[in-house]
Amino acid sequence: MSVEQAHDPERCQGVDVGITRVFQVLGKRWNGPILSVLMDRPAYFASLRRAIPGISERMLSDRLAELGAAGLVLREVDEGPPLRVAYRLTPAGAALEPSLRELGDWAKEHLPESPC
């Protein structure tokens, strides 16, 4: 038996709007690792896929599109031949670097190791 809960705006008043917006983007699986790779350097699609074990091409493509729509990643097409697509952080994406590195350091200190 499921209990339906109605949205109550008063109950949500304690939730920080900025934190909510950040985790709508960064809380999705794969977005953190993608941003982490791009913090170090721009990368071609194939290089990103190799750098992130377990991500499918479809998921990588979807996540890159979402990060692009959020204004964090820029897609650049090299007409070639061969045609190659590279991705890099926008200034807004690059501005996340100190915060992401701090979160990574926090995780190393406070979160248990996960088995590979």
Distance between the termini: 37 Å
Which overall shape is indicated by the principal axes computed on the Cα atoms? globular
Tell me the quaternary state. single chain
Topology as H/E string? HHEHHEEHH
Description:
It is globular and about 55 Å long. The longest helix has 14 residues, at about 95-110. The model has no long low-confidence stretch (mean pLDDT about 90). The protein has a three-stranded antiparallel beta sheet. The chain is built from six helices and three strands. A hairpin with a 5-residue loop joins strand 2 and strand 3. Helix content is about 50%, strand content about 10%. With about 120 residues, it is α+β, with helices and mostly antiparallel strands. The protein has helices at about 15-25, 30-40, 45-50, 55-70, 90-95, 95-110; strands at about 45, 75-80, 85-90.
Features:
116 residues, alpha+beta, globular
Question: How would you summarize what this structure contains?
Answer:
The chain is α+β, with helices and mostly antiparallel strands. Helix content is 50%, strand content 12%.
